[in-house]
Amino acid sequence: MDEVQVIWSSERSVHVVVRGEGNADGIGRVCEALRQRGLSGATDITPGAGSVRIALELGGADPEGVAAEVLRLARAAVDDGDGPGRVDGREVVVPVCYDGAFGPDLAGIADAAGMSREQAAAAHADGSYTVRFLGFTPGFAYMDGLPDALHAARLESPRTRVRAGSVGIAGGRTGIYPRATPGGWRIIGATPLVVFDAERAEPSVFRAGDRVRFRAISRAEFDAIASGRTG
User: Could you give phi then psi for residue 100, rounded to 5 degrees?
Assistant: First the structure.
């Protein structure tokens, strides 16, 4: 059974820590339960790798009482996977071009796995992924579900610039760079989608709990989508 703990991280925020084999799913259930129940005083609920951060405006509320309520809701969500905190994420399909120009690290990952580039690309596209949390930079979704054969350590020396839309691998996760930034993930392809735009009503394409599938596309299809043409 997962262990749940509430820790005050500042006068205005607590972390719900979930430890155990199912902690990734537990984190998602805790977030959904707290959002659905409308926790009094909560101004922001942010999932992380092993915890959920809750920003609070306590007003005159008793901190110990608030922490006890958070713990009660979190434990109920973790223990009851089919209860109010159940995560039924959307399915998001992401087109990815694994062309050599977009995937400078794909050949190395393929070699380590005893595969060809094409086989490694197919293995990545055939995976079933879940967004666990967003972080690092706005809209960067950390996704679990990468096939074991494709697991790869981060680069020893991060690149000074990774293009927006680049699809990367780090450890057992995959993710997409929403904008051009430095980065140490191994880059295997790119999507023409704009995965984060602060001007949109919902800036990020992804939410925690979403299920993600990658669809392999050609360079021609990449260019068509990027330029706004679909046919």
Answer: -55, -35
Q: 203 with 134: CB under 8 angstroms?
A: no
Q: Any idea which residue has 């790869």 for tokens?
A: 152
In which band, very low, low, confident or very high, does the pLDDT at 231 lie, cut at 50, 70 and 90? very low
Strand stretches in the chain, DSSP E: 3-10, 13-19, 42-47, 51-56, 91-97, 129-134, 141-144, 159-162, 166-170, 173-176, 181-183, 186-190, 211-217
What CATH number is given to the structural domain containing 174?
2.40.100.10
Is the Cβ–Cβ distance between 94 and 212 less than 8 Å?
A: yes
Look up the domain containing 220 and give its range.
Answer: 91-226
Higher local confidence (pLDDT), 141 or 133 = 141
CA atoms within 13 A on the CB side of 186: 18
CA dist list (Å): 13 to 63, 94, 144: 10, 34, 27
**pLDDT tens string 156-181:** 999 999 999 999 999 999 999 999 99
Q: Measure the CA angle with vertex 98, ends 129 and 158; round to 5°.
A: 80
Indicate the pTM of the whole model.
0.74
Within a domain: 121 = yes
Per residue in 148-157, pLDDT tens? 999 999 999 9
